[in-house]
Amino acid sequence: MAVPGPVCLGRGVVINAGDPIPAPWISASVVAVDLPAIREPAQVVGLLHKAWAQREPVVVELSVDPATFRNPESIVGEPWRLGVETEPWLDRLHHLVWANNYDARGGTIIWWWGRKASRLGAVETPSADFDIRLTDGTEVWVDGGPRRPWERSLVGGAGVVSAENIERGVLDTDPEPVLPSAQLAQDQMEAVGHLSGPARVIAPAGSGKTRVLTERLRHLLVERGWDRGSVLAVAYNKEAQLELEHRCRSFGPRVRTLNSLGLWILTQHRGTPPVVLTERDCRSIVESLIPGTTRRRANTDVIAPYLDALSQVRLGLEDPASVEESRDDVDGLANMFEGFRKALERKGAVDFDEQIYGAVEVLLSDGEFRRRVQPQFRHMLVDEFQDLTPAHVMLVRLLSSPRLDVFAVGDDDQVIYGHAGADPQFLISYDKYFPAAANHPLTVNYRCPTPVVGAAINLLGYNQRRVPKEISATITAEASPQSFVVRSHNPESGPATAAEVVKGWTQGAVAGS
């Protein structure tokens, strides 16, 4: 067995507290995993995740039985009480302790990925040049770091099998790196060819967002040959899903909407698909639960505010009592929220928002189930990330954990679902939720002429919470005196005037964008 392996693989070592540090790691940082770390794991997990992501060898000094954090953690409670930053920390700790580290406890150094590969038919070797030999004689390393293609020249000429493949029960080696084959602009090429780990792609209007998503999927599945079952693209709605599937029809990636993903999770957990209620069904439930004096008001839809408030709680993860207090049209919401969910449970049913909220609750509370489905979400690509609510972000993080390899595409200047809890902060502070994320901004607007782009930059510059951007129009964009015209209107008739202006454009055969 090779110790410590090629430097570029960044392997560390696990020892018992008090044991001498093996010579290859004598200069490495030491991270103690003890009872205080088990009780409050966030800091240690942060240190280990950074080392794992950046392939910096560490010495993990164990002073607790690793069985303490071996089993998947279960967290019971209403997601709105727990909050968006809640996660099963011990799951990530377990992964980071063992994923890319040798086990030197007891004096014998073991590379567990090599041992697991031997159970699939490979032969562990004492050679210093590779970990295992495949049945066809191929010499390979088994890489436990963030998945990426490797140049064989960097690893002594041997091949590389990703630990993800060992998890799947196969010994397929990854091909060497290749550039994306599509004809792309430089900024798009850098995003599509992103090497490994999570990434944030800030994609302003007209910058080729969908092209980047399409080609990233092609690059992972076709050019890198990664398993289709571990890569998922998430579209915000059905229309976006169908468009992405159409563009990728030649290689057929997995694409789901957020809600179909939530519904799939609930179906897998229950063993049968939940009944999906219509808005009319939900209105009937709400009407049966709200105070009698509220149920009938002349010329007033008294139910709609409750449906909206239920979304605030379940997608925005807001306290029902706080939502009720902040509004004057949802009396009794705090008391009826639990009753509404129990009514859904009795019917074996979900509504639109419960598909997300219920899935988050299940993934938190059933650790064994969560660990069982996570291999299908090792690499997630998420479109329109700026419009994800706290519940959506929790869903993505729970599924992509412990690696948190999420390729997010969005524009913090284009949040349109703020009323439902969408917050640009998730994109602005992306690496807080997906540690060690790379940043790949798209900087060219291919849709609009220079005057329009300049005006948009000026207007958006007034946003106080945003990712700073450099945006330019493509040199081929048409620019004429009529490219950008400012017309003022009476602010008191703003919506009506805006509707009339748009109507005039459409009747004049002006194309939308």
* Uncertain residue segments: none
Strand order of the largest sheet: 11-10-14-15-9-16
Strand content: 5-15%
Average the pLDDT over all residues and give the rounded result. 93
Query: Total number of β-strand segments?
Result: 18
Percent helix? 25-40%
Which word captures the global form? globular
**Which sheet architecture does the biggest sheet show?**
6 strands, parallel
Rg, Å, rounded = 26 Å
Oligomer: single chain
In DSSP terms (H or I, runs of 4 or more residues), the helix count works out at: 21
Assign the structural class, choosing from mainly alpha, mainly beta, alpha/beta, alpha+beta, or little secondary structure. Answer: alpha/beta
Distance between the termini: 59 Å
Description:
There is one protein chain. By secondary structure, the chain is an alpha/beta fold. Among the domains are: 7-168, no CATH class; 275-347. It contains 21 helices and 18 strands. Strands 11-10-14-15-9-16 form a six-stranded parallel β-sheet, sandwiched between helices. Strands 2-3-1-4 form a four-stranded parallel β-sheet. α7 (186-192) crosses α8, α13 crosses α14 (333-347) and α15 crosses α17 (390-400). The mean pLDDT is 93.
